Amino acid sequence: MIRWANIFISMVLEALPFILIGALISSLIQVYISEDIVKRFLPKSSFFSIIIAALLGLVIPICECAIVPIARSLMKKGVPIAVALVFMLSVPLVNPIVIASTFYAFKSINVVLIRVIGGMVLSMIIGIVMSLIIRKNKNIFKESSIYENNCDCGCEVVDYFNRKSNIRLCLEHGSKEFLSILRYYIFGSFLSSIFIVLVKEETLINFSNKGVLPIFIMMLLAFLLSLCSEADAFIARGFLDYFGVPAVSAFLILGPMMDLKNAIILNSYFKKSFTVTLIGVIGIVVFIASLILSLWGVGI
Question: In which broad location class does this protein mainly occur, judging by the first location in its UniProt entry (predicted)?
Fold first, then answer.
């Protein structure tokens, strides 16, 4: 019990500064940078626009729950589907807070490079593949969405935004998002700490020798735990010694791209066929990339 409490508390305390910083920066972006401004920085076509979309995460740290409605709005305004999807998938992965928290958790530049560069490359591949798949079926949007003026991080409706000062909006949005992120993170830390304490090391070693099984397990955990990308590295670090870098990399890349809560939000905006296809493409691409890392014997 004491060991579990120490692991659980250390996970939460280590991640708190990054969760708070991420929530505050995200609230500033939400209030002061509109979708029109983002659109002006994204060329409407060409491979160059996809590269720019993948790099925007370095300067636009937007939370996962907020990125889906923004991506949909960009598509509605004429931004190519591939570009909007690359933007949606890469921004939560490669922002500076995620980079800092990942390095702090692993103390390894290799893991950071795999997550950042790998995340950008895979997001571009996924965006291009999706644009090819749905080229003949452009009607991907639902007519209305229960999240049209809301998001899981506590974003308020537009009318409410217009009645309040920007400073107050930043504080309210930041506090609500911090509490929302913290809720998911504490839940993930709770499960992860129990897993680490209860599962015997011999069992984990056996799993680590089962070929593709560790990758499947970590991808499933990433999807179900729905952790914030600014703090998930601290949980992933606990699995590193048992599952290895390729499986942990799958966890670090898949989670910010698509988790359970994002799948629900995505399905509220887009038709079910699009949502299922996107989840499938993300899963396949991330799995193949992790398998390649495993075959290469990549370590920390």
Answer: membrane
* DSSP-H helix ranges across 199-231: 201-208, 213-225
Q: How far is residue 178's CA from residue 145's CA, in Å, rounded to a whole number?
A: 24
Q: How many Å is the Cα radius of gyration of the chain?
A: 19
122 vs 51: CA distance, rounded Å: 11
Q: What is the pLDDT of residue 86?
A: 94
**CA atoms of 176 and 76, how far apart (whole Å):** 28
Predicted structure pTM score: 0.77
Residues 6+ apart with CB under 8 A from 164: 172
Contact criterion met (CB below 8 Å) for 184 and 154: no
Domain ranges (residues) in the chain: 2-296
How far does CA 66 lie from the centroid of its chain? 11
Measured CA to CA, the distance from residue 270 to residue 20 in angstroms comes to 31
211 sits in the region (left: phi over 0; alpha: psi -120 to 50; else beta) called left
- Each residue's pLDDT tens digit, 199-240: 666 666 676 666 788 999 899 989 987 787 888 898 899 888
